[in-house]
Every structure is written in structure tokens, then in C-alpha cells.
From TrEMBL:
Cofactor dependency: FAD
Pathway(s) annotated for this protein in UniProt: Amino-acid biosynthesis; L-methionine biosynthesis via de novo pathway; One-carbon metabolism; tetrahydrofolate interconversion
Cellular component per GO, a single term: cytosol
Name of this chain's protein: Methylenetetrahydrofolate reductase
Reactions accelerated catalytically: (6S)-5-methyl-5,6,7,8-tetrahydrofolate + NAD(+) = (6R)-5,10-methylene-5,6,7,8-tetrahydrofolate + NADH + H(+)
Family: Belongs to the methylenetetrahydrofolate reductase family.
Source species: Nakamurella aerolata
Gene3D superfamilies: 3.20.20.220
The EC number(s) this enzyme carries: 1.5.1.54
One Pfam family hit: MTHFR
InterPro entries cross-referenced by the UniProt entry: FAD-linked_oxidoreductase-like, Mehydrof_redctse-like, MTHF_reductase_bac
Amino acid sequence: LTVRDRLAAPGRKFSLEFMPPRTAEEDPTLWRAVDRLKQLRPAFVSVTYGQGGSRRGKTAEVVGRIIADTDLTAVAHLVTVGHSAAELRATIDGFADAGVRDILALRGDPPGDPLGEWTKHPHGFSYAAELVELIKSMGDFSVGVAAFPEKHPRSPDLETDTRFYVDKVRAGADYGITQMLFSAESYLRLRDRVQAAGADVPLIPGIMPVLSFPRLIRICELSGQAIPVQLAERLSAVGDDASAARAIGIDHAVEMAETLLDNDVPTLHFYTHNRANAVIDVLDRLGMNNPVPTVQT
Ligand code: FAD
């Protein structure tokens, strides 16, 4: 089944994002997390593409292994930055050869500073919408795109940003996944804007339990999002007390998820950073830890 099929099924569900390991030492961390989290039956999992278009072979390798070794639906992220159209076509063919039927189509950020100058590859694309069109022209892939409830940092205003998201849906995207949220309200406002514009494909909110104050600041720096004041105050108030900060991060993720579920959002997407514990804690609290019964032999 593709993500498109999984999202069409009724009921509450969740999905997970993993990253290809950067070094051989990180390999076991990823696969341990996949092994633990797959038991909670995610609707799908996705695997990121190296920042700036780096380590491109890794995504196909990790997604291919997940597809071969598990019964999970797995999505390969793909970015346009740094690639010609011909390279993108070859990568999409490589994904298809690895059994991939789901792709998250992204523009990507420049290598180094994500908010630095964006340069189009001379034979590449300027925007993710063009990648959506390319992927759709190459076969029956299920394609997702990124959405930004507080607007993408390069967009002039929320309305323009929403219009460009809707363009991606018109180009053929089957669903959207948001940047990691700090408030449920920002997601709900985006959903209203998108629905008013007539784009009715599923829009999945992205959640990451943020377990420390420095981590929160780093995420905001990298993503260009405003620092969420209340969460920042709660986290900084506990100083170096890691377990208190962890509890605050989990509480915040749970509260946000509960508001979303109460507002008829059926699917939640969790950024795992290849760590299982925090996501398992949040799913436990939400009653969404739907483990497969262990077969006793
Ligand atoms: P676009 O949709 O192309 O938008 C980029 C900018 O251009 C926006 O400001 C948009 O408003 C503007 N724009 C769009 N169309 C037009 C137009 N026609 N005219 C003028 N302006 C326009 N990065 C990675 O490197 N690897 C990953 O695996 C990865 N995974 C991600 C997963 C999710 C769920 C999200 C939310 C982001 C992910 N990113 C990843 C980051 C993403 O690549 C960056 O945020 C990037 O800057 C934006 O990508 P996009 O696909 O939204 O681009």
C-alpha cells in the first residue's frame, strides 16, 4: 500500500520520520529505532535526503532495506537542490528499482547555511512543484510535499506561502506534511487557509518532542521559525535538569497532539531523529501505541 492508500483508511494513525545514518557508528541507532517503532504500527515511515542534496544514495539504501525487511510503507524524500533534472530522473528510477512507490518532493536548502543564498542548478528546478510534476510524469508514485504553518522563511507572507503550497497540490501532490509545529493553532489556521483555497488532500501535522532548551533554540535557528515563547520559558526555567526538561517536552507534544486529534486531525507525523523513546512516550499517553501482539512460541 502507498501513503495515499494508508491515508484514505479511516481512524487515527501516525507516521514517523527517520534519517539515514551519517556514519557507520550511527547505523545501529537507526535500525534499533526502526525495530522498536515498527511494532507500534505506523501508517508509514519516511526517510530524509541529505541536507544540500548530499549522501543521496543513502536514502534509497535505507528505504529499500525497510521495504525489503519489514511490512512498512516507506517514503523516500528527494530534494531538487544541487541536482540536474537528468540526475533527479536517475534517482527516481533508482527509487523505483528499490521498490519505492512513495516520494516526498522537496526543494531542499543550500548546503551549509540552510537560510543562505539558494542557487538553482543550471539544468535543474527552482521549486518543489516542478519536482512533483516530474515524479508524476514518471509513474504511479504517491507524492507528498512540505507545508509551513508559520510560512517558509523565504516567503513574503502567509497568503503567498499558502498559494505556493496549493500550487504543489495542483501539480499533483497527494498529501502534505508540515514542518515541526510548536502550536496546534498554527496548523489549524493553515488547514483553514488551504481548504478555503480548495486544496483538499490530507495535510499531516509534524510533531517533535523537544527535550531541551538548547535543542529548541537550534531547531528555530535552522528552520527560521520564531522561538515559541511559552515553551522556551518552561524549558529554560528548569536549567540543566534534563529529566524535568524531558517531561516538559513530552507534555508539550502530547498537549499539541491532543488538540489536533480533538480538531479532527486523523494522522500525526513524528520527527524521531532516529530515537524511539520520546515518541513511544507520547504515543502511550495518546493511547495510540497499537502494538502488534507478540506471538509466543
Ligand atoms: P518549495 O515548495 O519549492 O518552496 C521554497 C520557497 O519558494 C518557499 O518560500 C515558497 O513559498 C517559494 N515558492 C514556491 N513556489 C514559488 C513560485 N512559483 N514563485 C516564487 N516562489 C515560490 N530538506 C532536506 O534537505 N532533506 C529532507 O529530507 C527534507 N525533508 C523535509 C520534510 C518536511 C516534512 C519538511 C517540512 C521539510 C523538509 N526539508 C528537507 C526542508 C525543505 O527542503 C526546506 O524547508 C526547503 O527550504 C523548502 O522546501 P519546499 O519543498 O517546501 O520548497
